[in-house]
Amino acid sequence: MSLEFLWYIPNQVTPGHRGEPVSADHNSLETLTTQAKALEEHGWTGALLGTGWGRPDTFTVAAALAARTSTFEPLIAVRPGYWKPANFASAAATLDHLTGGRVRVNIVSGKDDLAAYGDTEGDQADRYARTREFLQLVRKLWTQQQVTYRGEHFQVSESTVEPRVVSRPNRAHPTLYFGGASEAAERVSATEADVQLFWGEPLDDVRERIQRLRALSDELGREHAPLEFGLRITTFVRDTTEQAWAEAEAKVAEMARLHPGTFADPHRRTAVGQQRLLDLAARGEVLDDNLYTTPGRFGGGGAATTWLVGSPEDVATSLRKYRDLGITHFVLSDTPYLREIRRQGDRLLPLLAE
After folding, report:
1. What distance in Å separates the CA atoms of residue 77 and residue 105, rounded to the nearest whole number?
2. Quick one: how far is CA 210 from the chain centroid?
3. Helix axis angle, 183-192 to 124-143, nearest 10°
4. Residue 123 domain flag
5. 73/80 Cα distance (integer angstroms)
6. 8 Å CB contact between 195 and 178
7. pLDDT by residue (tens digit) across 67-80?
8. Count of the separate structural domains present in the chain
9. What is the largest CA-CA distance in the chain?
10. Which stretches make up the Luciferase-like domain (predicted)?
11. Among the listed residues 135, 81, 133, the one whose alpha carbon sits nearest the alpha carbon of residue 112
12. What are 284-308's pLDDT values in tens digits?
């Protein structure tokens, strides 16, 4: 199976995201389009667009960037409580039609400022039960007509999405990515997702999770094509190993100065996957060959919690080891975003294509 390499575009209201230089036009259409076009020019398939209340609407940003590009594929993060499944299925089918099949979707079930847009909290089991129904119904609406569905959370009657999603080589509909490390999340992924995304965990941990998810798929009677796997991680690449580590350690020292043990994200320690990453620091500052865990101690969250650090050759070697475990989708990033899109596209991706 071929490998796919995507990046990350930070649709943020506040400038300076993860070390990106502060500028007044950081989230303008021109700035984001420049990044999307650079991705096309430097070997990337597309980019993940994050979601959350208080950020620019992810679907709107994705549609705007798709209109200004020709091959860029937005991986659009969406929340089941923000969208109703039929509304989302229709919107995504329309954008997929207009772009010639360039839409990808990342379903997010983690906590957010739900009350701000009229959603309710629910316990973990309830959240993932709703996510399961969302995935089931969106897929049905993309692949069937006159759909009637009666779930606990969502219902539709004789619903047909127009325009129809066109089945294309290697995908019957927009690929459905999903993350989550809890038992409830993994049971949803094993049966309903197309791609399970992992954060930057050590190789042995990823191997164990892939084995468990494959076994769960069999146990729970997965009805779709075999589950695929992806890695979302920061790749801190410099010309040499020595330069990479010197700059990585200097950047973490600056993070420690700015964030001495305080974090803005109230959900930082409630998500199982995030907590798994934070716990890695207790096992060592560097795991495997070059998985740097210290950023998570000083404000690094999500993909910025752990970094793969090194020369292009070092990082390519590490990514190949994840590939050998079964990872075929890679969502990479580092800041400044535009510089790293170009540099890693030119220096790292050719090594992974060999």
Report:
1. 6
2. 17
3. 10
4. yes
5. 21
6. yes
7. 999 999 999 999 99
8. 1
9. 62
10. 4-329
11. 81
12. 999 999 999 999 998 878 888 999 9
